[in-house]
Amino acid sequence: MSDTNFDVIVVGAGPGGYVGAIRAAQLGLKTAIVEAKHLGGICLNWGCIPTKALLRSAEMYEHMKHAESFGLGAKDISFDLEKIVARSRGVSKQLTGGIAHLMKKNKIKVFDGYGKLLGGGKLSVEKDGKVFETLSSKHIIMATGARAKSFPGLEPDGKQVWTYMEALVPKEVPKSMLVIGSGAIGIEFANFFHTFGADVTVVEALDSIMPVEDVEISKIAQKSMEKRGMKFKLGTFVKKLDKAADGVTATLDKGGKIETIKVDKVITAVGVVPNVENLGFEAAGVKLDEHGFVAIDGYCKTSADGVYAIGDMAGAPCLAHKASHEAIICVEKIAKQKDVHPLDKSLIPGCTYCQPQVASVGLTEKAALAAGHKIKVGRFPFMGNGKAIALGEPEGLVKTIFDEKTGELLGAHMVGAEVTELIQGFGIAKALETTEEDLMHTVFPHPTLSEMMHESVMDAYGKVIHM
């Protein structure tokens, strides 16, 4: 094969694309990856990783403000926003450099440019408006991700109305801020800016924050944030934004009741739209679904022969770990590996890195009932856990939902310290199809936060010990 002919070509080097390319190379396939902007995609450069670096600074600052409760002295607590942002960018740079190393290590050819399907297994690579290479492969994986959604009248301008891109590199902390949307992105940035002194109001069109989460968990998280001074307006729409030299005036509508709020900055976090434009989909015969995402089967194959789609462009949930898992499934199916299974989306955990953290996997209580299950629900509060109290983190809850008849774990939902690290335990339990009996017979170490997972299961069946 020539240097332009490959077994697999991946377009997009985010957490779906680069993972797929590495797995393809591991399986002995001659692999190329086409990326126009940055290895690691949005996740490593402008999403998952740098936001967590910012939030870590906020978490440490919050702890420092309460040092006295731990018997420690920390006076005149301050922060340097420029250094906080610089650390975040440094973390991102370190990891993206690691991706470049992995490409070289796995002998993956990297093309710097925009990929466009030409049909018939052909792909052009364009840079600065000019095609500089034409590649060919029987298998082309599209992994171009998604971008921030905007609505008429609420469009971001990068100055007074921000997306996550501007929110990641602020020059200063605004005195007041309106966050539109209470999904993971909105809530995380709301927490970050509030911690460093901004007067933050979150507007959500639905009736609870983090709408994909269990309502009980969302309410606990909201109550905790309100106690710290954050404000929420639920069931409320932002009708328009009027910009002026001294700020932005937002017109809000709650069931026909109109009010206005003036703030220094606005962050719009109302979801994402897939990057599906100018990719040659029409020429190649790639079809979109009713929501504008690429339509795929269980193995990520599109309507076009030899073309696949993974990650955010292939539909919800738009999560990095979902993209990575789809990449593995897609490539292993291409390589005709044994025991390749379609992705079960009920096994995908979700995490929000606010204060307190929120994490979940599987069905919410409402969804389980709507699906016709008779359920048993277990709950265990952080206040009943020795490790949580020792950490000074007594606020939170672990909630588990089981099918009454079979004992199947239908869902697990958590709010509190470090729950984003704990949720994988229930993820494994669901993947292995464990029952309540299996979980109750599992020995959890003491003293740990994970003991609450055990106690929540036992509570569902009337066997809880420490409550």
Described by strand count, sense and barrel closure, the largest sheet is: 5 strands, parallel
Category from helices, strands and their pairing: alpha/beta
Question: Which regions are unreliable across 5 or more consecutive residues at pLDDT < 50?
Answer: none
The rough form would be described as globular
The total of beta strands comes to 24
- Kindly provide the radius of gyration, computed on alpha-carbon positions and rounded to a whole number of angstroms: 24 Å
Distance between the termini: 67 Å
Average pLDDT across residues?
Answer: 96
Look at the structure and name the CATH superfamily of the largest domain: FAD/NAD(P)-binding domain
Question: How are the strands of the biggest sheet laid out side by side?
Answer: 4-3-2-8-19
CATH topology name of the largest domain, in short, is FAD/NAD(P)-binding domain
**CATH architecture call of the largest domain:** 3-Layer(bba) Sandwich
Query: How many H/I helices?
Result: 14
CATH class category name of the largest domain: Alpha Beta
Beta-strand content: 25-35%
Fraction in helix: 25-40%
What count of domains describes the coordinates? 3
